[in-house]
Amino acid sequence: MNLCSRKKIIYSLVISSLLFVPLFSLADFNIGRWAFYKEILLPATLEKVRPVWINLDEEVLKVARVNLGDLRVIEEKTKEMPFKLLTTESQEVAHGSQILNPSSVRAAFRKESFSPSNMIDGDKNTYFQIDYFKDPESASFEIDIKGQILTNKILIWTTDSTNTWTDIKIEASKDCVNWQLVKDKTKVYHSSMRKVVYPESLFQYLRFTFWHTGSLKIHEIEIYAASQAKLLFMAGPVKNYRLYYGNNVSDLPKYDTGALYSDITTPTATLGPGQANPEGRTDYDGDGIANDEDNCPLVYNSDQKDSDSDQVGDVCDNAPLEANRDQKDTDHDGVGDVIDNCPYHKNPDQLDKDLNGIGWVCDDEDNDGIINSLDNCVPHPNYNQSDRDNNGIGDVCEDIDGDGILGYVDNCLYLRNPAQIDTDKDKIGDACDNCLLGWNPDQLDLNNNGVGDICEDDDQDQVPNYLDNCPLVANSAQIDTDGDEFGDICDNCPTMKNPDQKDSNRNGIGDICDDDDGDGVINSRDNCPDFSNPDQKDQNNNGIGDACEDLDNDGVINALDNCIADYNPDQGDKDKDGIGDACDPKDDRWTEKASYLLWITIAIVIGVIVFFAIRLLKKMGQI
């Protein structure tokens, strides 16, 4: 059992005197069975024997038994002192508080106010909402709780899963000027009611900052004072007193407390630091086996039976047939994690209705992503856990609007509509649909004006968005030449139907109207869209342009084949003239690729040679 659970134990009334029993002696107290003690430091102003309060601190509460039955007040190590025990539950202190300095507030709509004051003692029909345009990412407000109170917990109801918060930061102040960080930005996953715990803080003002999705709506916020536990006993000014604790088998005796009383003048003692009890016995459970050798030192087990050989005796082993020496039990349900079918949520009965190996409290019966133990409507999916009346029952599991129709089938949860009229068939009843004629099950309303976005007229062309074939560009004529439901004015291919408006190269022209090969013929009409063929030749009339065919069946289409009519899958071209070897009869002619300039050069060289040869012959008289 964790500390939080200990604090929740409520003694709503001071334990009244029931039976008279004599004061116990040291022998009756058996000091050796207590592991720890704290010195009780009496106030210096105590001048006579009288009742005194002790506030129990977290160190004591953490170690003591869950029911605090092992607490003992001992005088001078020889006398057990009767006492009254009072544990107060954490109290809600936000009643009468005042919300200060909200970062923004949505303007009233149809006489409905979204004031932050709606969060104090709120109800299902009212809520605080920010102005999304002023606070698009985060928003904040402060609360004056009208006095310095020790607080440590808040509960926040936010039933709208679209307009909700994801992270929270908490600051505190005594004067609303100097602020101290209490809890840094922390993510808290969505549910209709979320609990946020923070270190105990004695302040009058709290500032909450929320990071949100969509806008931010909050129905109610509650602030809780920290839980407290204290005891009242009779003390004298010259005596020494100790508080003993730490014995998991002891229960509180029924003391005669008739002489104990308190009033506004009753003084309060303080506790010193915790100390190990030096007089503690080496055999706490009295089974004849020393603590350091006992496999269950606090529970009597003289047989020391240990079925799983994990050095923890069966009588105190939370998994006696499965070795787990660390005895890890994350959820504190008495069942060790090693065998627990739901290790993070308490289920001592290990109930598993469908026998799937997952404990019922950890299972998700309605498959809405929320486990049964946290789901406020187990039989029916309710992803947002909406609970407008904050009664712990999800709206889909009850008839919250009183129209005779349970929430899981009601198309208008919060407004009476027994006829369930739904003109646009979007599963949102006309009574609460923000766009009666336009299908919008998400009810999106980004500007929070009460009119669904699809019923708005964003381009102001007098055509509502749900009917407008170009909702962002004015086109009152609604011309749609190709009938693809995109008006010509915003259609990236107005003459060819393309409802997907695909534009792979993002050039503003739909793929179906693009001309990838630049041959002047658009893709949708090009019989070979990847290779330029402006003539669109198709000799066999098969719908595939010749440029994209493979005439010689060598696996290379004509547009890329260096030998169209001859089979040559290797595309060999020895002389690199662009003509494949298979159809090039001039492969060995080195001049094949020579340009006319080469031939002119050759001719000139030959001419020069002939010219000089003739001159030489003339000189020699041969001519």
Topology:
Blueprint (H helix, E strand, L loop, with lengths): L2 H6 L17 H4 L6 E6 L8 E6 L2 H6 L8 E4 L3 E3 L1 E6 L9 E3 L27 E2 L8 E20 L6 E10 L6 E8 L5 E21 L3 E2 L1 E6 L2 E8 L5 E5 L22 E4 L3 E2 L319 H24 L4
Supply database-style keywords:
single chain, 623 residues, mainly beta, Jelly Rolls, 6-stranded antiparallel sheet, 4 helices, 17 strands, 6% helix, elongated
Describe this structure in words.
The chain is mostly beta strands and 623 residues long. Among the domains are: 3-89 and 229-276, no CATH class; 98-226, Jelly Rolls; 593-623. It contains four helices and 17 strands. Strands 1, 2, 3, 4, 5, 14, 15, 16 and 17 form a nine-stranded mixed beta sheet that branches. The longest helix is centred in the C-terminal third of the chain and has 24 residues, at 596-619. The N and C termini lie far apart (132 Å). Residues 1-27 have low confidence and may be disordered.
Q: How would you classify the helix and strand content by structural class?
A: mainly beta
The tally of helices reads 4
| N-C termini distance | 132 Å
Largest beta-sheet details? 9 strands, mixed
Structural shape: elongated
Low-confidence stretches: 1-27
Outline of the structure:
The chain has 623 residues and is mainly beta. Helices cover 6% and strands 19% of the residues. The model is unreliable at 1-27 (pLDDT under 50).
